[in-house]
Amino acid sequence: MTIEELQKKIKRLNSKAGQMKMDLHDLAEGLPTNYQQLMDVAAATYEIFHQLDELRQQLKKLEKAK
User: Fold this and answer.
1) Domains in the chain, ordered, with CATH?
2) What pLDDT, in 10s, does the model give residues 13-43?
3) Residue 19 pLDDT
4) DSSP the chain
5) Side-chain-facing half-sphere of 62: CA atoms under 13 Å
6) Band of the pLDDT at 66, cuts 50, 70, 90?
7) Could you tell me the end-to-end alpha-carbon distance of the chain, in angstroms, rounded to an integer?
8) What does each C-alpha distance from 8 to 49, 56, 62 come to in angstroms?
């Protein structure tokens, strides 16, 4: 994957991560209503941020190797 491709992927994922963060925040504010969704939304949010972190690390490695 090129630096440009990685940057585009990070940008898209960053947007999605921001939305997931807001969804989790909204869910938390409404507790105890819809508490059943909390674990699923939290897990999905964690996964997005984990992927984003890994991509950023890959980008740093590619930029250093350049």
Assistant:
1) 3-65 (1.10.287.660)
2) 999 999 999 999 999 999 999 999 999 999 9
3) 97
4) --HHHHHHHHHHHHHHHHHHHHHHHHHHHTTTTTGGGHHHHHHHHHHHHHHHHHHHHHHHHHHHH-
5) 13
6) confident
7) 13
8) 16, 11, 14
Among 41, 47, 48, 46, CA closest to 10:
48
Q: Which residue has 């059943």 as its token pair?
A: 36
Distance CA 20, CA 66 (A): 33
Token readout for 40 is 């699923």
**27 within 8 A of 34, measured Cβ to Cβ:** yes
Tokens of 50: 């984990």
